[in-house]
Amino acid sequence: MSANPFDLTGKVALVTGGNAGLGQAIAVALAQAGADIVSTSRRPAEEAHALVTGLGRRFLSIQADLSTTKPIANIVEQALAFGGLDILVNNAGIIRRAESVDFTEDDWDAVIDTNLKSAFFLAQAAGRHMIAQGRGKIINVASMLSFQGGIRVPSYTASKSGLAGITRLLACEWASKGVNVNAIAPGYMTTDNTAALRADEKRNAAILDRIPAGRWGDASDLGGAAVFLASRASDYVHGAIIPVDGGWLAR
Fold first, then answer.
1. Which of these is catalytic: 156, 174, 216, 248?
2. What CATH code would you report for 12-243?
């Protein structure tokens, strides 16, 4: 065993939505620490593949749509065949925006199904394997809206608040079984999900004015927290939700 508690050499990490944005940045950070990567996404993951293999790590891309739970069993089977399943990062997520008085049931269901339902059942499937082997790390990607209400994103707020609760529940059930379940809560990051906010001059200015760090976060800012929660360094950390937010919640 390496003396470096952050070393992930020999580990296999499954990252949902690992083809772009936050998921890709997390996958690259885990690969930099030594992990091989299994990525799921609806679209091809050529860029993530190039970045991870360029670091000398193996990469498996699985095209899967997590708007339903149907692909989950196959995803876990492919990860195990690839080399194991030591780390799960539940990153895949979508967002729909509308005033709550106008919000549709379809937009509610689409976001809850992807962000919360599939995340839970993938954690369940991975957790069964991890409990059997006596160890594992599950990292859920939460949000500022796991703590706050937000506006015009009711199903997203509900899903991310629910994911925070599920993180704590699974930690309570599985901590004694060698499985760590924690979450990262990104602040306002420069991703496709926030393009509309950054394009709105007033909203962009209001957001920046509240962030003590004075800037939007970059996807790579999540890497350190992800490696920490995936590694031996966090072996006594259970049910934590770590904000990576430039100080937003401290304001």
1. 156
2. 3.40.50.720
Question: Which residues lie closer than 8 Å to 192 by C-beta, 6 or more apart?
Answer: 20, 21
Class of residue 183 by CB neighbours under 10 A (exposed 0-12, middle 13-18, buried 19+)? buried
Tell me the mean pLDDT in the region 231-251.
Answer: 98
- Sorted by where each begins, the domain ranges of the chain are 12-243
Residue 22: both structure tokens together: 């936050």
- 211 exposed, middle or buried (CB, 10 Å; 0-12, 13-18, 19+)? middle
DSSP β-bridge partners for residue 60: 38
As a whole number of angstroms, the distance between CA 135 and CA 51 comes to 28
- The verdict on whether 156 is a catalytic residue reads yes
Identify the pLDDT of residue 194: 87
0.85 surpassed by pTM = yes
